[in-house]
Amino acid sequence: MKKPSDSLEICSKHCGSKCCRSTPPALTKEDIDRIEEKTNIENWYTTIEFNQKTANVVAKKNDTDDCFFLSDNGLCGVYDYRPLDCKLFPLFVQIKKQGEKEYNVRWLVWYCPLTENKGIEVLKVESEKLLISILSENPDQIFDYQEAMYTSRGYKKKHFFKEECLKIQKSDSES
Ligand code: SF4
Ligand code: SF4
Fold it and tell me: Which pLDDT tens digits describe the chain residue by residue (175 residues)?
């Protein structure tokens, strides 16, 4: 689910929080540490295995396909500290380091009411800001995300959108 300020109506009313009721979000180590620090909830994530690798993903709620954190009102119960996978959604990133502070970035998208309503480029601006701040402060996190996404098959059925070179300036880490 995206930003509540301008997307709440689309996500919860017009879409029914569909993305929170399908593929479980992949988790980075930072996601797990942050959510554990902010909540006292137990058993909220699970480990899955694929191609002899393991990844952590958010558990399902009871016997449904709903995300463990999806509230009855269709909102995210951990919105402010939700997983990176959810923060980027409905965009997805595949990344390769090209040089010192230089990255090849492939953007993928999940077409949904939000992308149709706001436009992918507008959503990309928000996701790119987040990506740049992570690459400036803790680039390992984005590679951890990517690994978890591959292992949990989170890129499946997502569509290639754009490929570009992203150069992280010194000022990006200072902002
Ligand atoms: S699938 Fe798209 S429109 Fe629906 S809740 Fe998720 S981000 Fe919002
Ligand atoms: S953590 Fe929140 S935003 Fe992410 S899938 Fe679950 S309910 Fe949706």
Answer: 545 456 778 887 789 899 999 989 999 999 999 999 999 899 999 999 999 999 999 999 988 999 999 998 888 999 999 999 999 999 999 999 998 899 999 999 999 999 999 999 999 999 999 999 999 999 999 999 999 999 999 999 999 999 999 999 866 554 4
CA of residue 99 to ligand 2 center, whole Å: 34
Q: Whole-model pTM? A: 0.93
Ligand 1 pocket: which of 8, 12, 17, 159 to mutate (most atoms <8 Å of CB)? 17
In the chain, alpha helices (H): 4-8, 29-38, 84-88, 113-118, 120-137, 139-151, 170-174
Q: Whose CA is nearest to atom 2 of ligand 2?
A: 76
- The answer to whether residues 58 and 25 touch, using CB atoms and an 8 Å cutoff, is yes
Which atom of ligand 2 is least distant from the CA of 86? 4
Is the C-beta atom of 89 inside 6 A of ligand 1?
Answer: yes
